[in-house]
Specification:
By secondary structure, this protein is of the alpha/beta class. It has eight helices and nine strands.
């Protein structure tokens, strides 16, 4: 029985959301409070330098911009984005396969386009969830309350959020995060239904 369970095909869960929607909070709650889900965080690559105590292979795989471009040319990424000039982020196909083979269900915290690309690559083996704020006004309130961004940065984030929300219908599930505890339970139900399938 144990062997059969271990050999069951592991799955992928993709979370995308506009900044300030509570995505990271929900993911962290699922991973900390529900170890039975066998969730492991996808480790992305970046071309930026490590910050603080960040370690290669733990928070990120740190590559030079040249190494990143070479891997793009070799078609090694599931998804990637050049956020600023020479500042890349992306997910390596091989890293995801290694995590699945290790017996983990792999969780992604990615931007909207990255989420759509990963879903397209893995199809039914992946569940894509779009976490949406109740409204742009509520998102503005949250970002102001967070007090980490200047007013013009908040306006940029809100403009981007409005654009990202136009992609919501390309995800398997839309989860409106109006009340955090309710949204966490709804996310748990979505994952349980998908992983038990």
């Amino acid at each position: 029985m144990y062997r059969y369970f271990f050999n069951m095909e592991k799955k992928l869960i993709i979370f995308s959301a506009p900044s300030g929607s509570g995505k990271s909070t929900i993911i962290n709650w699922l991973m900390q409070e529900h170890p039975e889900l066998d969730l492991a965080f996808s480790i992305s690559c970046t071309s930026r330098a490590p910050r603080g105590t960040e370690q290669n292979g733990v928070e990120y795989f740190f590559l030079t911009p040249e190494e990143f471009r070479q891997r793009i040319d070799n078609d090694e990424f599931l998804e990637y984005e050049e956020v600023y000039e020479n500042r890349f982020y992306g997910t390596l196909k091989q890293q995801v396969e290694d995590q699945l083979e290790a017996g983990d269900n792999v969780v992604f915290d990615v931007d909207v386009k990255g989420g759509i690309n990963i879903k397209r690559f893995y199809g039914e083996r992946a569940l894509s969830i779009f976490i949406q704020p109740p409204s742009i006004e509520e998102l503005r309130r949250r970002l102001v309350k967070r007090a980490t961004d200047a007013p013009e940065v908040i306006e940029q984030r809100l403009s981007k959020a409005a654009y990202e929300m136009t992609f919501a219908d390309q995800f398997d599930k839309i989860l409106v995060n109006d009340q955090l505890e309710v949204a966490e339970q709804e996310a748990l139900e979505m994952l349980n239904a998908f992983l038990d399938d």
